[in-house]
């Protein structure tokens, strides 16, 4: 979740998503004083594969969550979280 290979900080890792009705809540490991963006793709063959769902998500101590309220349907969804700062 950190800033580089030399600081021994691990990258964000997504936990098992929580599905409720037509939404999915994503939770990932986070570090203090960081912001994140969350991206989604329907498949990895399309260009561009990922589109930004939300940026500037402020970190919380330990884990941070965000809910995709447009996750209706049975199509596959691929998510990734990125550190912005």
Written description of the protein model:
- With 85 residues, the protein is mainly β.
- Helix content is 0%, strand content 46%.
- The relative contact order is 0.31.
- The mean pLDDT is 83.
Question: Which descriptors apply to this entry?
Answer:
85 residues, mainly beta, three-stranded antiparallel sheet, 0% helix, globular
Widest sheet: strand order? 1-2-5
Q: Compute the separation of the termini in Å.
A: 10 Å
Radius of gyration, taken over Cα atoms and rounded to an integer in Å: 13 Å
Shape: globular
Largest sheet: 3 strands, antiparallel
The mean pLDDT is: 83
Kindly name the structural category: mainly beta
Please state roughly what percent of the residues sit in beta strands, choosing from under 5%, 5-15%, 15-25%, 25-35%, 35-45% or over 45%. over 45%
Poorly predicted regions: none
Number of strands: 6
Task: Kindly report the oligomeric state of this protein.
Answer: single chain
Helix percentage? under 10%
Specify the number of helices: 0
H-E order: EEEEEE
